[in-house]
Amino acid sequence: MSQKAVTGIDKNTGVKHYDLVIVGGGMVGISLALLLAQQQSDWTVLLLEAQAYDHSDKHNSHPSFDSRSTALSWSSRKIFQGAGLWSELEPHASAIKKIHVSDRGHMGLTRISADEAGVEALGYVIENRWIGAVLLDRLAASTVEMMAPERVAKIVPLKSAVRIHLENSDEPIQASLLVIADGANSQTAQKLGIYSDKQPYGQQGIIANIALQDAHDGVAYERFTDQGPMAMLPLPDFDGSPRCALVWTQPPERSAELMAATDKDFLKALQESFGYRMGMVKKVGERVAYPLALTTASEQVRRNIVVLGNAAHSLHPVAGQGFNLSLRDVATLADVLGKAKSTGTDFSSLETLEGYQQKQLADQQNTLMFSDNLPKLFAQPSSVVALGRNSGLVMMDLLPSLRSRFAKFGMGMANKEAGHGQ
Ligand SMILES: Cc1cc2nc3c(=O)[nH]c(=O)nc-3n(C[C@H](O)[C@H](O)[C@H](O)COP(=O)(O)OP(=O)(O)OC[C@H]3O[C@@H](n4cnc5c(N)ncnc54)[C@H](O)[C@@H]3O)c2cc1C
Coiled-coil stretches, from where to where (predicted)? Predict the structure, then answer.
């Protein structure tokens, strides 16, 4: 295990001072801590996480590393590769070789393939618990300090730092930069008067692992139904059985029925709604339902403060973009902070942080719009809209350039300025 970076003491107050305090040790908070630790080992970083990590937890009850699976884009792979983490994640990942998009009850359908896009894979699907296991192992061996369970009680902005009072300690700490990554509806951001605008979709996303009769051959299916979109994403085999990760969006009443249904009835409903493209569905694992909303923070940067991850923007999961976008934010932020530090510029100044936000603005806006419009477009029952979207899908199947643009978006390459997509 490596030495933790030596934390400074504020000369005037005697208070412990860190370069960064990251609140929220979920996928985003830990990723930032690890990217910084990899970049320059002299960053002093403290991570505060509300819930202790329990490695023996069979129910995956941690809020970030739970029973979900995440479709990582090609650009996320490259970021994790740069941080030396990909070789540990890859054994738990299933490569997406093809994406198959269809609209139930209509003829439009399109296929996007990795070969056509000229990449090894369009993305990778990994269970969150494995992402958690890999990130937490690396964190334990890094220079990052960790406090869990711990929460922020009070934040006092100072002239060029923030003072942080903790719930479980009488000793305050200080940070040049406070990173708020404690998820959607962030309590920490609210303490600073940063609020989130929440627009519920009036839908829930049911997730579950599904055992299949036949091999999935690396095909991911996105299917739009009258009730809402559904995705079946390829997972590595388990116990010799092919598996996929289901994300099934439904209105709340139908979601409650499906959550209460027996496994047999659930599988029957799934097969009816999804069809037989992936063959027979054999078994369903633990089901969890998430209420879905588009949530955006009123501010992302202030002097000495950054809001990241779901605390900054939380998206509809249909296009699998939420974490991928946040990881591009994280990589850009780490880059901007590293450059400022190495040139002796104040890395926590408003100017530096606004520079970060400016670099990510187009990527954030495009990804938010794409993730928000996709489910809304397919939710329209009007036959004119249905005709439009189906001719769109048919056109996409016929026009390689349009398909390759869609594929690039999914791979996180839509915004070349972000620099992580190439
Ligand atoms: C059904 C579903 C499927 C999804 N699929 C995909 C996908 O395929 N691809 C993709 O890119 N994205 C996907 N997403 C989005 C992705 O899960 C999120 O973008 C990601 O979890 C955001 O991580 P985060 O660390 O910002 O927030 P979270 O995962 O919410 O983590 C926040 C952390 O902060 C901690 N915390 C909370 N309050 C406090 C506090 N007061 N003090 C300290 N710590 C605190 C929590 O315990 C938690 O550990 C999906 C989302 C859903 C709901």
Answer: none
